[in-house]
Amino acid sequence: HRDLHSFPTRRSSDLTFSADGRWLAWTAGDKKVSVLSLADGQMRTLAGHRADVRHVSISPDGEHLVSASDDHTARLWSLRTGRFAVLPAHGAVSMSHFSDDSRRVVISSEEGHTVLRVWDVETAAETAAFRSERTAASAFFSSDGSVLAAAYDEPRVRIWPLAAAPPRASRDWLDSLSSTELTEEGEALSVLRKRDRQPRRR
Predict the structure, then answer these.
(1) CA 43 to CA 59: how far, in whole Å?
(2) How far apart are CA 8 and CA 11, in angstroms?
(3) Between 20 and 30 A from 23 (CA), which of 151, 178, 198, 199?
(4) How many CA atoms lie within 13 A of 169 on its CB side?
């Protein structure tokens, strides 16, 4: 079969479609993101990162794109206007995923340990952060956006209720959140309640 379209690129390290089929986005392992409108075939480039982009994701409503980069930031782009907000981290950002309602996005960064940061898409404000000594392989929201689950390079899944997430000023979230840990066979071991602690203000 002949290609419908073909676009030259150094290499494609990550690509994604929007859920509504309007957009195709990819990164060639450099500092840019290419976005193709499938409606009219127009392509544009989102540039501005200072290091290679490792991952791209598009919100389910097709309105926003997040690019995750080695420059210690993710960028939240409007696909309608091309404007963006910088979502800072303290290490290379390797992954991002939107909630089903497109109102939240989680990014994963390597900061000597893995940190999952949850951001509000409308305000570009960080609303929660979760730390682990293990590397996160994936992270997803529940369908109603109230729970975040993450798989790490270990035989367990970690689950956090976002309604109970600590404020941004806190770095002691593992002492105040409930988590369900699963065995390698997928059986729930327990629901653990860590002792409550007042958030540490900075």
Answers:
(1) 18
(2) 9
(3) 151
(4) 5
